[in-house]
Amino acid sequence: MKAFILKRYGKSDQLSFADIPRSAIKPNEMLVQVHAVGLNPIDNMIPKGMFKPILKYKLPATMGSDLAGIVVEVGGQVTHFKPGDAVFASIFDLGTGALAEFAVVPEHAAAFKPENLDFIQAASIPMVGLTSWQALKERAGLKSGQKVFIPAGSGGIGTFAIQFAKHLGAKVVTTTSTNNLSLVQRLGADEVIDYKKQAFEDVLQDYDVVLGTVRGDIIEKSLRILKPNSVIVSLVGPLDTAFASARGLNFLMKFVFGLMSRKIIRQARKRNVGYSFLFVHPDGHQLAEIGKIIEAGHIVPVIDKVFPFDQTKEALAYLEQGRSKGKVVVSVI
Q1: pLDDT per residue over 113-124, tens digit each?
Q2: pLDDT in tens, 308-328
């Protein structure tokens, strides 16, 4: 089968198409014919070796994590799905990849594709949906009536997180450029700050939750807008010792991550604010719940551009520019 693989870390020319055999499935796995794959910023970070100490890829490795497709084979222990079912899933960090004609998907990572979405739309959901659920609902415990700040509202995670936070009943404030103001307002943002004209830390106050989506000094600046007993959940770092422990990393990595996060944790504690780093994990049950919300019409996918499979390199390059409004998707079929 045709797959988009990473040969070695460090250079973009180590990404290429290859013909590889289909993987044999284990009893708790399914073989899915991939129709579409949603791309995420981490897909550009992995080839550079940025997550080499954390993600254990066996090279050469098939890239990609978010997919939608049709089940063609199931293992003997699979009970929830059967051949012919339309599914979507995140297989991030599970030792397999989505950018291929067929993908191995553990049963626990999959959910039935929402009936009101096509395969392109469904493939855009898993990582941003699971990230929003795990960050806002689980980690932050966002409740109705609370105020949440979600920077970069027009991006892949922002367009979903805004809608999910509104579904939870929160007041949502975001940042974006002038050209994207109407988009984030349509998605439900209660207040929008044009970051080219205003500094959010000068105008916002007494927030309950910040979702860290932008690298740089945004996390530290966010401390100024939070009230006591509030939380920052960062998707972009710095990584902390709790994350290292959860990953089962060695003492050295725990020490390094502790140093990396020491400053922001110290500053947060001074303001009685909690800080944590979130690394999304696949979860088919959560994805099924997200699917129900989508089928009820509370959240709609936002897709910027769709690339054919043979233009996967161009799709990744486009995503890396950081200008997409919503998600970038690769159509495999």
Answers
A1: 999 999 999 999
A2: 999 999 999 999 999 899 999
List C-alpha distances in Å: 306 to 10, 32, 36: 26, 20, 9
- Please report which confidence band the pLDDT of residue 11 belongs to, taking 50, 70 and 90 as the band edges: low
Looking at the structure, do residues 59 and 140 belong to the same domain, yes or no?
A: no
**Do 76 and 100 lie in a common domain?**
yes
Number of folded domains that form the chain: 2
| Shared domain check, 166 and 27 | no
Of the candidates 8, 260, 18, which has an alpha carbon nearest to the alpha carbon of residue 252?
Answer: 260
Residues 6+ apart with CB under 8 A from 202: none
**Whole domain around residue 58: which residue ranges?**
2-125+301-331
Within 13 Å and on the Cβ side, how many CA atoms surround 89? 33
For the stretch 315-318, contacts whose Cβ atoms lie closer than 8 Å and that sit 24 or more positions apart, written own/partner, are: 315/39, 316/15, 316/39, 316/43, 316/44
Residues 43 and 120 grouped into a single domain: yes
